[in-house]
Amino acid sequence: MATYNKRGYKAPKPEQEKEVLEYDPIDAVSEKDSTTAEVFNSLDTGASRIEEWVAGNQKIIFGIVGALALATVGYFAYDRFVAEPKEEVAANEMFQAQQYFQQAVDGVASDSLYNLALNGGEGKMGFLKVAEHYSGTDAGNLAHYYAGISYLNLHKYKEAITELEKFSSKDAFLSALSKGAIGDAFAQNNQLPEALDYYEKAATSNENDLTTPRFLLKAGQVALVLKKKDKALEYFTKIQDKYDTAPEAANIDALIGMAQ
């Protein structure tokens, strides 16, 4: 008997495809939820361990935080309540010595005024005491420079060198002047190699139209005495080439002739 396919009739699907259709999406979601739960459980366990560690070590943690806070507050407190007032007191204390120094520079009874500037007067400290009692302040540092120049003018060259070598400055111009003053003290003390060394440092530490030709000239003159004509020629030529309008260039041609 012939078999006819009815319209809309579909043949049964193979067993393998039935198995695929038997896949339960609810079970799949459950598996995902289970994996997610394991991840969150792991995170919760880690967080709990951290909480336990924090709880057990609170004293240490607060101690570290407290120490950092105290250090920060201490720094600003020191700067405001100790360092700044100390700078102001030191500057006020040194003011009278600076007045003596300026009067000495102006040439009125200079030796006695330089001594007053060094040792103090009218109930105020001189440069030596300011440098000693206010060490670490800007005023204490500057007092070494003033003391060195005072000693230099009093012809006490060793003392001048000692004080000036204690002075330091970030200001290149003032640094050059202090090195040149040390050179002057060594030259006056007949220590010419040392003088030449400091004149060279002064000339090269801050090149400008005022101090550089001055210390190049002194370096060249000392180099001539030491029979270092090549160096002398170098310094004199530099004045001629770069600082021809400076007062030190007035007789530079004659000096170059001596160095050749």
Automatic annotation (TrEMBL):
<feature type="repeat" description="TPR">
    <location>
        <begin position="176"/>
        <end position="209"/>
    </location>
</feature>
<protein>
    <submittedName>
        <fullName>Uncharacterized protein</fullName>
    </submittedName>
</protein>
<keyword id="KW-1133">Transmembrane helix</keyword>
<keyword id="KW-0802">TPR repeat</keyword>
<keyword id="KW-0812">Transmembrane</keyword>
<feature type="transmembrane region" description="Helical">
    <location>
        <begin position="60"/>
        <end position="78"/>
    </location>
</feature>
<keyword id="KW-0472">Membrane</keyword>
<dbReference type="Pfam" id="PF13432">
    <property type="entry name" value="TPR_16"/>
</dbReference>
<dbReference type="InterPro" id="IPR019734">
    <property type="entry name" value="TPR_rpt"/>
</dbReference>
<dbReference type="InterPro" id="IPR011990">
    <property type="entry name" value="TPR-like_helical_dom_sf"/>
</dbReference>
